[in-house]
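Recall the central idea of this unit: under ordinary conditions, the amino acid sequence of a chain determines the structure it adopts. In this exercise we apply that idea directly, starting from the sequence alone.
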Amino acid sequence: MSVVTSVLVDIQSIFRTGLKSYYASMEEPPIQIIGEEKTAAGLLLFLNKNLSTELVILDLNLPDQDGLDLIPLIRKQFKTIKIIVLTSYSDFKFVGQALKNGADGYILKSHEIEDLNEAIKEVMEGRTYLASGLHITPPNGKRLTSNVKKSMYEDRFVIKQKLTKREQEVLQLITEAKNNKEIAKELFISDQTVGVHRKNIMRKLSVKNTINLIKFALENQLV
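Accordingly, the structure predicted from this sequence is:
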């Protein structure tokens, strides 16, 4: 395999530095990391300036854009670039959506570096790579039961996935202290529809009133 020019996209500087240092010291696989970015906007700007980039190694949790939404943008603008998702999120819904959106591989940060090396080799040879232990449907084809304990902590990326695109738009306007009529006018929908969205958002985020909703959204950087 010839040298693969790559860019790392991850919010964690130490993680990027460590991975870059590792590949700088290795001959196999021949990876040249030519860039590091921590935002979706930074990545797209980098790719436009560095058209020789062949591989994007991408985390899903980015500060300015959902990584799942970023994948199809990369795929649309840079059709030949390979995309490997390297993240902490193992939920089958994220795995399946990432591959559906155009990712070529999916691997967890908890996997071994040899697994990442294999993923790079596989995707650069035109195959899709799914690391061991990951699924694109519920394990064994069964629905997940409601009594499975949830983590006591959910980060911004996971919380945001609970909301639809329209609910995210409504939440943004709610945090701007706009009432239902103002939101309805801006989004070209009815007051009643805004009210339904507001109730659904509060239910999904387990908050009881608008003040707590705004506080929760700001604290968790959902807007």
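The CA atoms of residues 96 and 136 lie 4 Å apart.
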